[in-house]
Amino acid sequence: MIKKKNEMVTSVREKMRGGNGSVLATSLMDEGTIAHCRLFSELKLEKGCSIGQHDHVNETEYYLITGGQGIVTEADGEKTVSAGDLVITGGGASHAIRNEGDEPLTFIALIILD
Known about the structure:
Elements: E1 9-14, E2 22-27, E3 37-45, E4 50-55, E5 59-67, E6 69-74, E7 77-82, E8 86-90, E9 94-98, E10 105-113
Antiparallel strand pairs: 1-2, 2-3, 3-10, 4-9, 5-8, 5-10, 6-7, 6-9
């Protein structure tokens, strides 16, 4: 199966999870299409935009950073991430991500249910 770019739905999510600004979200696959998967999307945060702190209980979220730089907040503090880095959050842990850089921060977000 091949899903063409023009078949993917893009939406703007304001103040996602209590964050700042807008997140441009392109759904790579519709919810329920992939077994045990709640989310599979490409996300884009412009300068000053963020996804607020949120928990992952009974699921694990993966952010594969594909462009720009961002700051991820986890229980043990803030960490800078850039293209090629993989953020993994599960087991009830929480995280947030923000873009303070001049370039857009882009990443693939995947949530797998435990």
